[in-house]
Amino acid sequence: MQPRAFASALLVALTAFCVSSAASTISPESAWREAGARDVQREALTAYSELSLAFVRNAGQLDAPVRYSTQAGSTNVFLTRRAAVIALRKGRRGLALRLAFLGASPEVTIAGADRSRGQVNYFVGNDPTRWQTNLPAYEEVVYRKLWPGIDLAVGGRGGQLKYEFRLSPGADPVRIRLAYRGQERVSLEPSGALRIETALGLLQDISPVSYQLVDGKRVAVASRFALAEGGAFGFALGRYDPSYPLVIDPGLVYSTYLGSHRRSEYPPGRLAVDAAGSAYVTGAAYSSDFPTTAGAFDTSFNGSVDIFVTKLSADGSALVYSTYLGGSGAEYDPKIAVDAAGSAYVTGYTSPADFPTTPGAFDRSHSLAYDDGFVTKLNADGSALAYSTYLGGNGDNRGSAIAVDAAGSAYVTGLTDSEDFPTTPGAFDPTFNGFFDAFVTKLNADGSALAYSTYLGGSGDDGNPTIAVDAAGSAYVASGTDSRDFPTTAGAFDPSYSGGRFPFHGDAFVTKLTPAGSALAYSTYLGGSRSDGASGIAVDLAGSAYVTGSTRSRNFPTTRGAFDRSYNGGRLGENAFVSKLNADGSALAYSTYLGGSGGDFGSDIAIGGPGSAYVAGETRSSDFPTSAGAFDRSLGWKVDAFLTKLDATGSRVAYSTYLGGRAYDGAGGIALDRAGSAYVAGSTGSRNFPTTRGAFDRSYNGGRFGGGDAFVTKLDLIAGPIRCWVPRVVGMTLRKAKRAIRAMDCSVGRIRHIRSKRVGRVLRQNPGAGAVRRRGFTVKLVVGRRA
Fold this sequence. Notes:
Layout: E1 6-7, E2 10-16, H1 28-35, E3 55-57, E4 68-72, E5 75-79, E6 83-90, E7 93-101, E8 109-122, E9 132-147, E10 150-157, E11 160-167, E12 178-181, E13 185-188, E14 194-197, E15 202-205, E16 210-214, E17 217-221, E18 223-227, E19 232-237, E20 246-248, E21 252-258, E22 265-266, E23 272-273, E24 279-285, E25 306-312, E26 319-325, E27 331-338, E28 344-350, E29 372-378, E30 385-391, E31 397-404, E32 410-416, E33 437-443, E34 450-456, E35 466-469, E36 475-481, E37 507-513, E38 520-526, E39 532-539, E40 545-551, E41 575-581, E42 588-594, E43 600-608, E44 612-619, E45 640-646, E46 653-659, E47 665-672, E48 678-684, E49 709-715, E50 724-725, H2 734-743, E51 751-754, E52 761-766, E53 772-773, E54 780-784
Parallel strand pairs: 1-20, 51-54
Antiparallel strand pairs: 2-11, 2-15, 3-4, 3-9, 4-5, 5-6, 6-7, 7-12, 8-9, 9-10, 10-11, 12-19, 13-14, 14-15, 16-17, 16-20, 18-19, 21-49, 22-24, 23-24, 24-25, 25-26, 27-28, 28-29, 29-30, 31-32, 32-33, 33-34, 35-36, 36-37, 37-38, 39-40, 40-41, 41-42, 43-44, 44-45, 45-46, 47-48, 48-49, 50-53, ...
């Protein structure tokens, strides 16, 4: 029988540092001696957030009770048979915090697992016979049979200590009993995290997350910390099937940094995912050591800022290709799309006249005085340009989003103040309207000509638009505008401008163009009386447009039954929003706020089946709505990325999580694969941003002076909890069997009596014990008396 893994991944992280007076149950000095801490000298308590992932076996370099240890700055972790000891130091003050294993078996064995690269040497003292050399290091240490049938694995992830429990069949999770010693107080936070207050600062075990693999799909199991007397704690679980593995804290399929060692990477724009699950991401690189690959189109840094285009393998462990894209000046704000053949399409804007273009492309000349937009198509292996063209007039021109249809035509939107921006005969609007207009341009498949090109705007500023395309070739564009004369259509949801005066002004807009680009299928404002703007748009198979962005309006239009109809952003804050328009743009299918009290911004949106909206962005709210079982339910610093999945009606958050470390983190793009996994790309300044074992780059590269790295994270969102798993009822009386089955939300179904007219006990059941079904599944029983 397959072992059952109850993997309680509880991340311990210093989230604050406070000094207070309280007695510890065990003196720091004695605990430190037991742990064998000898040489912890650095002053920075915050070094705990950069905890090494390598555990080294004690070969005599430490006191005898220690089996394995790891060190990061002024923090040491020592693993003994009966406890994990975290030795902290701040200035001249020291503290040893023990995580004790209560009632643990004396038969436990401890062994390293998953060898790390490199070896460790200890040259302590002047006696070479006592030196320890070439000691192996491990990413994980496993306590086997710590309690009957229960193993404990201890490791590191993204600068955080992680421990998880793995249960064999028949093992009882109630046996897991832990207790901190050396703390001042242990309590539960509203998020479900375990709060450990010490004399040197605050630590936190984030709330456990559980799932089972059932028929190849992840199914959530409710779990939480359960406090007991004397500072002890364990876990309380919801219903789960003991015949399947059980894991806690899944969340990330992979997560990797992506950056150079010298400067920051500009936050990546939209990302794309192909049919094989490979992620394509683009951003702006500021240095010559951004990771590129042999054979890629351009492996040399060209100017002050270059675009990068990177394709990751499906498991996030390697770069399929990575290339620079740019000229001798600067390129900014790139966005990306990918076609069915794996060709990547990129747009943005560029200042140099030597941006790489291709023979036969639509426009190979730069406007010289200002920025030009560009559209570039890379071939499937990233080794060459299929085409590359400028796009603009004699003013400022900036590509801000791109989409591609099944025929390989690229649809580009952006903003321009050029009166001579290239438009086409018969296009909806060939005339510049004032200040900054949006534009919508469709290029033919080889990039040699414009299928159509049109202005879109009024007399004001019409924002930084985003775009989506449906199967019929209709383009959907959304942004923000302060134009009171922005073009709207009769019968649209809101044809009137609602935005207030400066500085809180502007409405979002949503516009659908006909496939030929010659007319508006519909066009509507979307907003309240203050400032509103759309930054992401997606369209489903029925032609409904889903929009996200941010709003400062307390009267932003919401719908009855929506998840959140109340503005939460405070006087100077903002909330994200998610709105779904019906297919003809005449009404809202649903519309909801999304956020907390600190300020929230929806960056991008994607649609999964059936009609679920996935939103990524950034939040400053410690009360941003998260879901039970989410990867991370606590704000890591002042700004975290977030990922939220709304159900098809917009009435419920199906999944919502923070994503970040202990500095700025923001998501710029989201994409989904066919299996429903969500890919998020963004920018991080966190040295402890969560990464995964085997990912391409687990080390922060952003430099010393506030630079940032890009990140790419894939999450496997967990399905709903098990509604019905069948208990074993053979041998029970019929009455007790019915009660046991119905308690699991199963029905009973047909009952067949045999061998006796009198009802006896259950002889057989179908399905057997442990089967997992949806609520209401019928369990058939055979009852009677045996001969």
